[in-house]
Amino acid sequence: MTELLPPLREVIARHGLSASRALGQNFLFDEQLLDRIAAIPGDLAGKAVLEIGPGPGGLTRALLRAGAQVTAIEMDRRCLPALDELGTAFEGRLNVIEGDALKLDQNALMQGGPYAIVANLPYNVGTELFTRWLSGETWPPRWTSLTLMFQEEVARRIVAAPDSSAYGRLSVLAQWRSEARLAMKVHRSAFTPPPKVMSAIVHVTPMEMPEGVSARLLSRVTEAAFGQRRKMLRQSVKGLPGAIEALDTLGIDSQRRAETLSVHEFVEIARILSA
Question: Could you tell me the fold of the domain covering 215-274?
Fold first, then answer.
């Protein structure tokens, strides 16, 4: 039945759907582009995929065409009838859950096995979801990869190298126990309605977690250091007990600024504070 699916524009028109600015929605119609996005995580045939904010189901179609078993969380009930049609066309391979992804236990929804996360994230919740997926002491996570659409500015912050204006907390969070890369740029004209900014897709895969390092303490170190990024470290981290002593132990000049420290240096500071 999948070859009988009507074009996305037709589905949206028939259901009277329009992108909600309040929900951070922007719809993608280009099926070839959507197939390219679905291919970024690799072969999805028979694999579990979690999608956040599918809207009318453009990316969902591509994931299903790739053979994935998709669980989609959607809080806009206007989109549910269009998603139901997809569920009928790809019988047994789409589970749609109405709700707020920020309030749901996603691991519980995915029923015990590994899963990939692929999403054209709503702009208004994208960064918060991303930081949740990358936080926590338990590692490796249940998810095997993150393939996520962000505003290009946010995507560049995630993959930024030290000593650059984009480098910050998101960079360290994404890179200290994961590999993050910019997988694809998406022009604003590809969306309906076109957003004011360009977009990009980031692909993240978990790596081995450094031993003896608390994720919570690393988060506190980066929060202090980048919270006042124009200041020298001796000023920005002085309120964090033991931080100045850790800099001395590691031979890190306290007159440096946060954006000059490598991810490894932040990890080593956190390791000392975790001891």
Answer: Helicase, Ruva Protein; domain 3 (1.10.8)
